[in-house]
Amino acid sequence: MKLLVSVRDADEAVLAAAGGVSFIDLKEPGQGALGGLPIDTIRHIVGVLRQRSSRLPISATIGDVPMQRLDEIRARVQAVGSCGVDYVKVGIDPSHMGDARRALALLAGLAGEGLAIVPVFLADRGLDVDLLQHPGRGHWAGVMADTADKRAGSLLDVVARAALARFVSASRHAGLMVGLAGALRASDAAALAQLAPDFAGFRTAVCRGDRAGALDAGRLRELVQAMGEAERMAAAA
Description:
4HFCP_synth; lyase; globular; 8-stranded parallel β-barrel; 16% strand; alpha/beta; TIM Barrel
């Protein structure tokens, strides 16, 4: 299980890269669950990391764009994808099935243009694994489960463990890389190791104060250690 950490600027990105993470995720936590950074900022962060010879995969969100705004989603995906990121993340609300299916079809088409797109299923009102059978799934680079309301607790508080296990299993069955995120804490490490997604995403757990605070090197170090220990224990069980 790889460790993804979300950052908002180049300094945080360099700190995360040096701290032992596996994925760098670019977002503005003060602008919602999938708050998007300005395009120039995304391009700058990617440039700084690559100039430092970092080969870590980089993802970036397009922002909290309503699923009905397909033209806006298309434009944002193309703009973010032009910045040199490895993955473009797009929020999908499974509780609005018709809109979700139309948005996923659009993302499949954009992926066919060479963009590596990761739909992020916002699980606050449940996860519908039927969406993982969408005809366009073969074009996606992976999928994630996340939460929109970070104040409600971690993903593991909001979604039943069995439902998350079904999501991970169904994603793998569909041949998709799968990640879990959503106000996750270092104390969630053991449960995450048992669910065994391909990666787990964090922001709040590595910040001073709430998720809008600055990235903290000490908290990041503690998280990396907790995740490593949880994986070793899960492997030995």
